Amino acid sequence: MNTSRAAAEAVRARWPNAKILIPWGNPLFIVPLLRAGFPKHLIDGSGLDMIGFERLPEQQLHQASTHRLYILLNEYRKFGLDKPLLPYVEGTFVPTEPGAVTWDEQADLYHRWNLVSLAYGIKRFYSGWFAFDCGDYYGAEHYGGCGIQRRIPYADPKPAYAHYATMTRALDQANFDRWIPTGSLTTYCLRFTHDTQRYLGDMSVTVVKDPGRRAGNQAPRAGPRTQAHAVVYGAQAWPAGCHSRPRQRLGLMGEST
What we know:
Number of domains: 2
Distance between the termini: 53 Å
Strand order of the largest sheet: 1-2-3
CATH topology of the largest domain: TIM Barrel
CATH superfamily of the largest domain: Glycosidases
Order of helices and strands: HEHEHEHHEEEEEE
Structural class: alpha/beta
Helix content: 10-25%
Largest sheet: 3 strands, parallel
Oligomer: single chain
Low-confidence stretches: 198-234, 250-257
Mean pLDDT: 77
Strand content: 15-25%
């Protein structure tokens, strides 16, 4: 507490416009300081280090859960800082070395971690979706083998590379709107709005799992009374052009539950 305060006072005095992030690590490290009355003028937010690895991004509150952001945001609100600056500075790392996850699983985990984080209002991702696997010994362990392309000089893309391209295209300048109920505890739907179109909402959407196809391609735009069929491979589909609350039917291809 005293060390953080002294360091923050020095930074604020020397660089008054600089953003002070405490900590640069575990997001809940700051909670005891906030509860102890850390000076509000000496903190702007936290640098998030959420490693993830092979864990499910949607797992419930736990030591390394993405949903720790729920606790963090509520603690900041109690502290009196409603909109803290929360950039990702490390993590998530999703390795594809032997014994870790497959290339397809990596793509799903990166994608879902990103979407859940966006739903919590995180907008700065300085980590995650790492460009390449590391080429030295570091690339043989669970931090360095997490690139969305293989190591240089190969640099051939993994499926996560296409997932990243699709996600950034679909959500460019879009804002999170709300979670949409799907009637399932394992299938999730997030709605994002844009100045000119809306994603994942406002139409009847049949969400199915088809192991014969890859997801990531944007579905055709639909009008307010149009029924669209979004084929999901693993985790993601991107129906667009919506205007009212959707209805969902979940199940395998040709089935509904």
